[in-house]
Amino acid sequence: MDVDVKSFGKVAVLMGGRSAEREVSLMSGSGVLKALQSKGVDAHAFDPAERDLAELKHKGFKRCFIALHGRFGEDGTVQGALELLGIPYTGSGVMASSIAIDKVMTKRVWIAEGLPTPRYVLLHRGVFTREQVRQVPDELGLPLIVKPAREGSSIGLGKVQGYSEMAGAVDAAAALDADVLCEQFISGDEVTCPVLGEGEGARALPVIRIVAPEGNYDYQNKYFTDDTKYLVPCGLPAGEEQAIQEMVVKAYRVLGCRGWGRVDVMIDAATRKPYLLEINTSPGMTGHSLVPMSARAAGISYEDLCLQLLASASLDQGDAAA
């Protein structure tokens, strides 16, 4: 893409941070930093866990590439700080980020907009009773999924096969988040689809089909093994990929997302109906990550993708403060 990299000024790549996904964020950020520097951008690593964000202003940074994942990076907090500092940043703004990190709030918006997502039961730590936990499978069926409402990378996620496994799965998720999401399990193809842009200009990249060992796409299989297969082209029946792309763009728009994101979808094997699982507003950019893989299939190199995202950096409140 034709971009004047000098117009970006001094750029901070925010990486690391304080979330459970720090390790992955450092991998993402390192890749982005190297890519931007290779394109001639004056880019520097910046870890908010080790430095005060106010330094960004004092050190003359003009824009930020957010390569943070999870809490304090993907949840609207860093975005709000950058709004106050008047430094444009990549990805979604404060409201879209804070809604999207919360899987339950995301579901509520999607349901209100008539978009399909698996049925769920929400449990609150310290409030739910053993009896309520025991009743969840009666409502959602078995197997079912239990996960913290606000963690990413499948951290704390458990697949419950029987009533006896419910208490342990709920306790594990509740150790990470006060809100525990119990979700109907959709058996079928697991796919993901990145989206770039904003509003009417938002467009979907190619769909990726994920084939994990024993269907277990967990933290380990996401980042640290080569056993998971990622199929792009996805090989779905004609028309299905396009329908999923249209659905994820709508899911992205109704949350008010901008810049980029990645939407995870399950396709029911019996009915072929797609269900929205969740959206990532600061997706991974590691060697295993899916947005670069999908972009590559669309003819966009990793370096050009990073540059394109940096060029889209903006603020909720318009132009940067003087």
What report would you give on this structure?
The protein is built from eleven helices and 13 strands. It has helices at 22-38, 54-58, 77-85, 94-100, 103-112, 130-140, 166-174, 219-223, 240-254, 290-297, 302-311, and strands at residues 10-14, 42-46, 63-66, 120-124, 144-148, 158-160, 179-184, 188-196, 203-204, 208-211, 229-231, 260-268, 274-280. Strands 8, 9, 10, 11, 12 and 13 form a six-stranded antiparallel β-sheet that branches. The protein has a four-stranded antiparallel β-sheet with strand order 4-7-5-6, with helices on one face. The protein is globular. The model has no long low-confidence stretch (mean pLDDT 93).
Low-confidence stretches: none
CATH superfamily of the largest domain: ATP-grasp fold, B domain
What is the residue-mean pLDDT, rounded to a whole number? 93
Beta-strand portion reads 15-25%
| Level-1 CATH class name of the largest domain | Alpha Beta
Major sheet, described briefly?
6 strands, antiparallel
Function: Cell wall formation.
Enzyme class: ligase
Domain ATP-grasp: 107-311
GO molecular function, one term: metal ion binding
Which characteristics define this entry?
322 residues; Rossmann fold; Dna Ligase, domain 1; six-stranded antiparallel sheet; 13 strands; peptidoglycan synthesis; magnesium; ATP-binding; ligase; nucleotide-binding
Please specify the SSE layout and strand pairing.
Layout: E1 10-14, H1 22-38, E2 42-46, H2 54-58, E3 63-66, H3 77-85, H4 94-100, H5 103-112, E4 120-124, H6 130-140, E5 144-148, E6 158-160, H7 166-174, E7 179-184, E8 188-196, E9 203-204, E10 208-211, H8 219-223, E11 229-231, H9 240-254, E12 260-268, E13 274-280, H10 290-297, H11 302-311
Parallel strand pairs: 1-2, 1-3
Antiparallel strand pairs: 4-7, 5-6, 5-7, 8-9, 8-10, 8-12, 10-11, 12-13
